[in-house]
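Incident log entry.

Two folding requests arrived from the same account within the same minute. Monitoring flagged them as a possible duplicate submission, but the sequences differ. Recording both here for audit purposes.

Request one:
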Amino acid sequence: MNLSKLNVKLRIAVVQLNPQIGCLDETISRAKHLISIIKPHPPDIVVFPEFALSGYSFHSSKHIEPYLYQVTEGPAYELSRHISKQLKCYTIMGYPEKVVSPNDRSINDKCFNSAIVVDSSGEIAFNYRKSFLYHTDENWQCLENPAGFQTFELPFKKKGRDLQTGEMHDVKLKTSIGICMDLSPYKFEAPFHDMEFSSFQVENDSELIVCPMAWLHSSSVTNQDEDSKQKKERLTKALKEQGLPSCGSQGKYQIDIEGADTATEIPACKPLESEQDHRLQMRDTNYEELDQPDVSNVNYWLLRFLPFLACKLRKSWFSERLLVPVIQKFKSGRTSYLGASTDKSWLFEKKEAILVLANRCGVEDGITAFAGSSGIYKFNGKYGDQEESLDLSNKSVSLLGNLSKGYEGVLVRNVDFQVRRPKPQFMK
């Protein structure tokens, strides 16, 4: 098929919040304040974290019940509509969803961990439900997405420039959403190298991947910890030493808007370099240096997108036909392994894609610390025969900007990437 290359330019905003259960109005107020700051620089997409307004650590069905809403009702829907109509953009926001049986009220509501997509007219463009559940989701009888991972099209008017003719075209981007645990091995039991979510994206040619998250910082106390008492004491001490309440920082913002000189209480994160990267990663086990990103988690997230990263080992797997028996073992129709297939050594080669990670920050229950560090990344599909590193130093990925681990704020970046489309699609 004869394809045209389109250069797509978008402006993407990521809002990082520290929502606390029972403090809905306060969280909405801070969210609106951050949106007011970016209003002079309107984005094409605004992305919020998982459970962006409600808080995350619910312990039972009864605990979460007041915060469950159907897709076209509730605070997340109303705020998303407000933002989308005000800024003429898409808004993507995580929220607790309930599905009510229309014919039989005796049937219990189904509950999901969901992300709503609202278009510029305030209409629902898509509603994604989390596929892989964390144990906190299971506490309140959350259900897995019966459809599994999904893709959908997001249309943008006059955002694609034909590299041959220079003409501007409407473009529909193949988009996918993953919510936090979706990036991890299923139930933490599947083989680490299965890379279920990112393999799905590569095999389905996703161009825009958006991940609302409530990802934990390593200082969090979890039900797997044997030293839970000591970890809680260390976290409490870290918060006290930084003059913070038990919930962490709220209302002190880090503002990083490309192309704008905006006053901010917390300076923007400096571009990560190898020496700084190593220094910060050594300290990521403690809840400190909250104005810096959680580099350990940033590198882990990228590792979970290994199918998009250049890796020269793939060529030997391909040439020696080592992949055939590996891929044949998959039972879900998978056609690739770590980005390689039996037909091509790297499925993502010479392609480009944008990844948006919107993570929350703060602390809940005095024991659950979140990693923040929301960021925007670009995969370039190059250097497949050169790269060995599988972290931020890999030349096939660029970190376009990120926020800190501990402060609320907003990040805005102009992204520029190429997609391919059939030529007849653009004939007048």
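Request two (distinct sequence, not a duplicate):
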Amino acid sequence: MVIINSFKQYIGLPREIYILAIQRFVNSLGGFVYAFLALFLSERLGFEKDVIGVFMLVCSLVGIPGSLISGHLVDKCNRKTILLVSRTLSALVFIVCGFLGNSIVIPYLLIASSFISSFSGPASGAMTADLTTPENRKQSFSLLYLGMNIGLAFGFTIAAYLFKNYTQWIFWGDGLTSLLSLLLVVFYIKDTRPTKNEIKKINDSDRVGEKEEKGSIINALLKRPYLLGFVLISSVIGFVYNQHGFIMPFHLIELFPENGEKYFGNVMAINTIIVVVLTPVIMHITRKIKPVVNVAIASLTYIIGFGMMGIVNELWVFFVAVFIWTTGEIIATTNTGVYISNHSPVNHRGRFNSIIGMIQAAGRSAAPYFMGMYLVSHSSSQGWILTAFVGIIAFILLCILFLSEKHHYNKA
């Protein structure tokens, strides 16, 4: 009964949300490049772990100016056009990389692709917020996340095979599926930037956090201290979560030199299958829990799931742990987006998404950089223990934020 009811939550969502869910499925079906990027740089180009960490940091840093520029443009111009141009150019760069073999030029092109694709983030986030309301936002974010992971469930398995035998198709497959998925946006999604009448309706509603905000973006952010606190903590959680894509492939290859790449692909395939099967159920069970509390629960699963991989160096641990931390991934991904959208003023959605995305990216980009330096002189097991410790800090901070926010609104 719970399973049936969990799928009923997706009935009656905006038509565009269903289209975007299909679009994300197709795009993720070929999401090969970043899934195996660390291994490509290590196994094909011979980069050391610390160098890989620096490279991945640079990829994230170049996205900051692109995201900031895009945030301003998204609030002033056609959001759909910005999304299409950014992702089309990024896909074309991937296709070019496929023709270059193991050339040292590829990392530089991937940095360029990261800059270009960063323009799509604020546009995508703002469009999703435009198309949803607080009443259907959790379900909508959940469905989009589900669509993406159904694609990844197939994509990781395919990517593991391609990386081993036909590395160039890692790039070609990613680029071609990206272009194919964008056709759905071209033909079925209109620009979503709110009209004056739509802004007025929000101003006259009880959607306090989304009401139009006069003045600068800085002023609007400072009026939302709990949102700022939440975003800063979520960047720490991003640091923790991103270690699964950095430490894990190296750890598995250390333990199983002959089959490490295959095992990593298997673990990530299981990760996406769990997401596909359990997302509706978990979202149904946690639907009445506040987003901040849900994210705190997610951080606990990271502490347990990642921590156990640092304690026991056996293959079965990776396959047990993936069930634990994937549950947290499901909860954190959907609830983080919901909390941010519910607290972003309608006329600043693009800029809020860009600045918030920049703060969150800082945590994600720091993950490979600092961990890469740490792993030069420490084992992968020690890297997992450090990751769990950072997760504990994030959990404590979320508890403090929740209690503080609860006290503030009870007092008001």
